Amino acid sequence: NYHKHMRQPQRNVEKYLEPFRLSLEKLKEVSVRLKKDLIRGLGKHSHHRAAVKMLPTFVRATPDGTEKGDYLALDLGGTNFRVLYVRVVEEQQKVVKMDSKICSIPQEMMLGTGEQLFDHIAQCLGEFLESQDLKGQTLPLGFTFSFPCEQKEIDKSILIRWTKGFSCSGVEGQDVVKLLKEAIHRRGDYDIGSVAMVNDTVGTMMSCGYRDQSCEIGMIIGTGTNACYMEEIKNVKRVEGEDGRMCINTEWGGFGDDGSLKDILTEFDEVVDQTSINPGVHTFEKMISGMYLGEIVRLLLVKMAEDKLLFKGETSEALLTPGQFETKYISEIEEPDSGLENAQKILTALGLNWDPVDACVVRLVCDTISSRSARLCAAALATISNRIRVNRGLDHLKTTVGVDGTVYRKHPNFSEELQAAVRLLAPKCDITFLVSEDGSGKGAAMVTAVAQTTCILPPSQQGATNPAAKKKKSVRT
C-alpha cells in the first residue's frame, strides 16, 4: 500500500528531491573532474594548491604473503587509544591479534601539553608490555595517527593541525614519531623498534592485502571519507625514483574545496557546510559521510514541514535542533522489512505528529540522500580504478578494494548501490570489495611488517629490531 499512500504528495515531494538525484552523465562528469584533481595533486609544482592533496605515504608495496613476526600497533584517533600486540603467521597467511588494551584520554589532557599526552601514551604502552611480558623485547611498531599530517618518510610525520577536540600545545609542526620516542626514552624502562606511521585508509588496504594480494585500494566511508591506492612512483613527482609503486593517501574528502562541485551542491549542502566547524573545507565529504547525512535529511524534513508537505505543517523542537536526526536513523528507516515501523518510532521519539504517508515520504528522503552518497563514492572509486588500469596499460583491470566505515558496514543497501554504480562508471574494471578487519590495528602491523622487508626503512633499521621478520633479497643494487 506504499504507492496507494504516496500517490497524492509524490509529485510535490519530487521537486525537493530532484537536486539530489544525479544522473549517470553527471556522475561521469564528476569522475572526470576528480581525474584532473588527482593529476594536479601529484604534480611537483601544483600540489600545494590542489584541493585533493594526494599525500605520499612511503608505503611501497602491498603484502606478498611472506611477512611474519611479532609487532606492536598504536591507534590514536579520538578520545580513546588502543595498544595491540599482533602476530603475523606466514603459514596461515593470517594476522592474529594476540591481545590489546584500550586507554582513555582525559578531557584536560586533550587540551594540555604535548609532552603530557605522549607521556600518557608511553605509560599505557609500558603497562601493556608489562602485562604481556614483552618489556625485554624491542618490537617494531605501527602507529595509526588519524589527524592531518604531512609524511616525510615512513617513520617521520609532521602534525599539520589537531582536530576532533584536541589542542595539545607543542605538537603542531612537530614529528609525532620523535615525540613518541622521546616520551619512551624519558621513562627508560623499555624500548620499541622501527616505527611505521600509518594513515587509516592505508591500514584498511593492508589488512585486506594479506588475505587478497590484489588489494590495491583502501576506502573508508564512515564518520568521514577517504581513499588510498597504489600509484606508479614515476608519477609521484614529490618523491625521487622511477621504479616501483607507492601508496598515495588521496584525502579525497577535500574534492570540491576549490568550487569544482558547485553545480551539484544543493541549498541544504550549503547550510550543512556553513554550520559545520570547518566551513568551506571537505566539500565532498560533507555530501557523503556519516557525520553529515543525518543533518542533510533533517534540513530537508524541516523545509518540507514548513511548506506543509509533512507532519500537517508542524515541526518539533527536536526536529529543529541540529544533530538530532542521527545518521544511524537513515539505516534503520531503510531496513527492508522493519523500515516503516522504525520510521514511525523515530518520528514519535522526535515529537512529530505523523501519519502513514509521512513515514513513507521520510523513507523516500532517506533513500535519496544515502543513494546520492553511494553514487558519488562510486564516481570517485571509478576514477581511481580507471587510473590504476590506464597506469598499467591494461584493457581490463581486476582489483580489490579494502573497505571500512560505519556507513558502508551498517547501511542496508549502501554497498549494493555503490557497487552497481561503479560497474556502470568503470566498465573495464572488475572490482572485488572486502570489508577490512581492524585496519588501524592489524593493518598498521601489516604496514610495519611490509616496511621491514621492502627497503622502506633506511638499511640500518631493516629487520634489525625484529629477528622474526623474514628478510627479502634487496632489489636495490
UniProtKB/TrEMBL annotation:
Spell out the reaction equation it catalyses. D-glucose + ATP = D-glucose 6-phosphate + ADP + H(+); a D-hexose + ATP = a D-hexose 6-phosphate + ADP + H(+)
**Taking every annotated instance into account, which residue ranges of this chain make up the domain Hexokinase C-terminal?**
216-450
Q: Which UniProt keywords apply?
A: ATP-binding, Glycolysis, Kinase, Nucleotide-binding, Transferase
Q: Please list the coiled coil stretches.
A: none
InterPro entries the record matches: ATPase_NBD, Hexokinase, Hexokinase_BS, Hexokinase_C, Hexokinase_N
Citing just one GO molecular function, the answer is: glucokinase activity
EC annotation? 2.7.1.-
> Tell me, what is an example of a GO biological process annotation in this record?
glycolytic process
Every copy of the Hexokinase N-terminal domain together lies at: 13-210
Q: What's a GO cellular component annotated to this UniProt protein?
A: mitochondrion
Q: In which pathway does it act?
A: Carbohydrate degradation; glycolysis; D-glyceraldehyde 3-phosphate and glycerone phosphate from D-glucose: step 1/4; Carbohydrate metabolism; hexose metabolism
Extract the PROSITE patterns matched here: HEXOKINASE_1, HEXOKINASE_2
Pfam families the record matches: Hexokinase_1, Hexokinase_2
| Family assignment from sequence similarity | Belongs to the hexokinase family.
Supply the name of the protein: Phosphotransferase
**Which organism does this record belong to?**
Amphiprion percula
